[in-house]
Specification:
Heat Shock Protein 90, about 10% strand, alpha+beta, about 65% helix, rod-shaped, about 350 residues, 5-stranded mixed beta sheet, single chain
């Protein structure tokens, strides 16, 4: 259906071009005190001949795309196509002008032949230039899409590497905490181990997903928070609030883990000055706000975690991840995204 509309649009443009050309020729001939510049016959002849030429050029372009694609030599291809165009228009214009000359006499016939022949030759260059321009535009567009795809894949790999780096480090610390709990509080140790298994089950279940519902991410992060609060006890306080109407919005999996790990890694914590973290929704955003007590030095920090997270979101939405800080707080705003139903599943299995 689209092809049919485009087909007729081409002919409408050609007809408009012929009409305008005839009007221009009329005024030129009027200035030269000649007659016959604008006639129905002239418009009709121009229209039919240009349609024939257009279809021939399009057929030649399609044929050369198969037997002599641009990729095999752009200069050679352009030279061959322009040469074929000029030769065709030279022969074609001879027959057209032989027929059209009967409508004109004397000086008008010579003027018509000169202007028409020049027009046809120029037309062959212009028509082929359209096909050349389309090829270069398609190549440019393909290059842009490939560059975007590669950048997205690079960012995804960087984010995956970040998660893989955090998980062994987090697992080591969790195992150390669990080892101490086994002797001091076996019941708490059992609960700690259950939450730890649910955290890793969530990571494994969603490692191939681009988005998950906010509801699932919040279930996951509550298990993760239990591990942090058990490990750091009274030196960390985390509060989670979410508006019910936003829990089906989408978020990149383990976003909250990355942000909480970032807050823990870069801030001092003690009972007199516990790390305060608040996770809450506002409008169509998820905010993570933590009190700011920066460490003087941070081990194993490559300072790329938040940048990779920001880059990943740029491929999913036009709304940026906003990161800002005040004298007392560090704030990250994550856009919540609409997602297809195919991404949704029952999180009761991991709760």
């Amino acid at each position: 259906m689209f092809r049919r509309k485009y087909f007729w649009l081409e002919y409408v443009i050609i007809f408009a071009f012929c009409t305008i050309g005839s009007i221009v020729r009329y005024y030129i001939w009027d200035f030269l005190e000649l007659k016959g510049g604008l006639t129905y016959e002239a418009v009709l002849i121009s229209f039919v001949s240009i349609i024939i030429a257009w279809e021939v050029f399009r057929g030649v372009n399609s044929y050369l795309n198969k037997v002599m694609p641009f990729e095999q030599g752009i200069v050679k291809r352009i030279g061959v196509q322009l040469t074929v165009g000029v030769l065709f228009m030279s022969v074609f214009s001879y027959f057209i002008l032989s027929y059209a000359s009967q409508f004109f006499d004397g000086p008008m016939s010579r003027m018509f032949n000169i202007t028409a022949y020049a027009t046809y030759i120029i037309l062959s260059f212009l028509t082929n230039s359209i096909f050349f321009a389309k090829f270069f535009f398609d190549q440019w567009k393909k290059g842009v899409l490939n560059a975007e795809r590669l950048e997205r894949e690079k960012t995804q790999v960087q984010f995956d590497n970040l998660k893989n780096q955090l998980n062994p480090h987090f697992l080591f610390n969790s195992m150390s905490s669990l080892n101490g709990l086994i002797y001091d509080n076996q019941e708490l140790a059992s609960e700690f181990l259950q939450n730890l298994s649910k955290v890793y089950r969530y990571v494994l279940q969603n490692e191939e997903r681009t988005l998950v519902p906010l509801s699932g991410e919040l279930v996951f992060i509550r298990h993760f928070i239990f591990l942090l609060e058990t490990r750091f006890q009274n030196t960390i306080h985390i509060n989670v609030e979410a508006q019910p109407q936003l829990i089906d919005m989408g978020i990149v999996p383990v976003t909250l883990q990355v942000l909480l790990e970032n807050a823990v890694k870069h801030n001092r914590m003690d009972e007199d000055h516990p790390l305060q973290i608040r996770i809450y929704t506002e409008m169509d955003k998820l905010l993570v706000v933590n009190s700011l007590l920066p460490k003087k030095s941070v081990e194993s920090s490559n300072k790329k975690g938040l940048n990779n997270l920001k880059s990943l979101y740029t491929f999913l939405t036009d709304i940026p991840v906003e990161i800002r800080s005040t004298s007392d707080y560090f704030i990250v705003e994550i856009p919540l995204l609409k997602m297809e139903n195919s991404f949704l599943y029952d999180y009761k299995t991991v709760s």
